[in-house]
Amino acid sequence: MLTAGIDVGSSTSKAVILQDNKILSYSIIPTSAESADSAQRAFDKALDKTQFISPDDIHWIIATGYGRVVVTFAKETVTELSCHVKGANWLFPSVRTVLDMGGQDCKAIKCDGQGRLLNFTMNDKCAAGTGRFFELIAKVMDLPLSDIGELSLETDDEVRMSSTCAVFGKSEVASLMRQGRNKSDILGGVHTAVSDRIVTLLRRVGITPDLAITGGIARNIGIVKRVEKRVGCRALIPEEPQIIGALGAALFARDRASRN
Amino acid sequence: MVQSTSAKKSLQTTLEVPVLRRKYYAQTLDDSQKGKKVAWCSNNIPSEILDAMDVTGVFLENYATVIASKRLGSGFCAAGEKVGFSQDVCGYARMLMGYVLAKNDAPEAPYGGLAKPDFLLVSANSCDSRLGWFSAMSSVLNTPLYVYDSPSQPDGASNSLVVAEHIETELRNLISFLEKQTGNKFNPDKVRRRMDISRQTSEIMYEISQLRKAVPSPMGSADMFTAVWPSMYLSGTKECEDFYKRLRAEMEERIARKIGIVPEERFRIMWSGIPFWYDMQLINYVENFGGVVALESFYRVRERRIPSQHDDPIKDMALTAVRQHGYPSGISGSIEDLLEAVEEYKINGVILSYNPSCRMLLISQTELQKALEDRGIPTLGLECDMADERTYSEGQVKTRMDAFVERLLAKNS
Fold it and tell me: Cβ contact (<8 Å) for A117 and B395?
């Protein structure tokens, strides 16, 4: 049986095509101003990759993410909170806590052994700790986004950031650059400040091992290492951390389709 | 953007409240024009005493909710901020300071605005922001202010006779203040008559609270957040008593006919804290999933009012106040009260509003949420101002609500 999950996030749209218990293909594309169009393109791209599956072959489609309600070709919607734990728990059955760090928000989610949502807390009031914040910092420091995590670990004299607000943080980084501070020291300070906020969020929901980190920022080794150090356990990182929400949606679709 | 404000009501009686409210505000303007003394009041100022002193009370916190429910809150808050009040200040206070000091920058005031005050009365109970807010208004309006000190009680002291004596003294001082301001003589018989009606009304409201335990819910919070209004601002009037008699009768009929808020009630939610007045349809949102917000933390009448014990109505009023203002008392008292309500009203989950500009509630909500989660009762915290919709993102709030419902349904599956 073929099912699909579509995750329309603020930065990227993702699609996963599932055949029973196996990921057949997936796609990740930037979300444009038209979320519905992004969802369609992500789905088409994932289908194209399979080379033999057409939309009519898909039994059930579930949409998730902040743009889930505009995905008209989906049969139903499930929140990204439920989808992330569903997907993470399927990949790593020992997972009981998921930290999802996406483009627009940051979520700490707890689940049971079946990947069912038990509790969650979110930061969506503040851009610090989101993908957008790191994009801003990389830009102001004229560095590739993919490099800043690694660089942040190459310091033994990290700066102490006075602000974790994304706007003020960016200004502070620009000011530190003008003062000639070492880039690794600055990035160390930025990553430490963000990690402290993330761990506070995690502690609010309670950390039950194992912990998985999903979302684009899971690729940032500077954040992962600091979070691991603060919570005192290793984090499980999916090979493709950005598709976990879409994967969870595809798994929900599989469950729904088999019930109908 | 929020598209609508008023919650969808299920009971016909509740629909009478907007009419009563409009009439009440029109009456205050009329009284003022006829030369009757007008007091701008905080909540907890006993309207029975105002009536006995022939004073028209205008309750500012209520007017703030009227402004917010008409989606004018942000405009009034911005006017308050323009004259220097920080966004961290209570949303109600910001709006009303905007109304007082920056009328030209604020939107058109609902109900034709407020009757001009001759003096101000503030209760020190529950909220410390009120004291600063009313002091500031007293200063800018050059209007006398009386602070009625009726303290909230620490745990276990809600029936303290010492506190009752203190409140009695405070009530007598309030009466002296009003006699001085109005030149009128206090009429204890008039207070006694109104207190008798208040007591009868309170009995009906206690019964209404009991009726709300029924499954399916005969009246949810979407109705109660409106239906509570007469008890707060028309207390001690026949109009108020009759309203609750009709409400009780309608609820009894719904229970007899098993009419709920939704066709098939799947789960029951409790709302803890102040709602977001600019989007009251959020209370109805869970109905899309077969749920109902069946109870709210503030308006449950927990016990029958004590019978009259003295010839002196002020002594009785002090005893009533010490129970009302002190209950539930302290954090542990609030936790106990909440857990009791969850059990008695068969609540499956609790939504807690976190209002950063309400210090009094913000602190206790964290403790309440933790206590509920520790006992396996699912909770959802929503952080938004009660009046200032600039702090509100409908999409984000509804994602949380959706996930909360998914959590509840997963738990019950």
Answer: no
Name beta bridge partners: B145. Answer: B120
pTM confidence score = 0.89
User: A217 and A184 in one domain?
Assistant: yes
Burial class (CB in 10 A: 0-12, 13-18, 19+), A56: exposed
User: A115 — alpha (psi -120 to 50), left (phi > 0) or beta?
Assistant: left
User: Could you tell me the two tokens for A120?
Assistant: 């969650």
In terms of domains, do A16 and A116 share one? no
Q: Does B373 contact A119 at a Cβ distance shorter than 8 Å?
A: yes
Let me know whether A223 and A250 are in one domain: no
A123 or A48, which is more confident: A48
CATH of the domain at A220: 3.30.420.40
Q: What residues of A are in the B interface, CB distance below 8 Å?
A: 66, 77-82, 105, 116-122, 124-125
Nearest to B92 by CA among B132, B124, B120, B119: B132
Tokens of A254: 């599989």
* B403–chain A nearest CA distance, Å: 6
Residue-number span of the structural domain to which A147 is assigned: 94-237
Instruction: Give tens-digit pLDDT for B20-31.
Output: 999 999 999 999
Cβ B378–A119 below 8 Å, yes or no? yes
CB contact under 8 A, A66 and B373: no
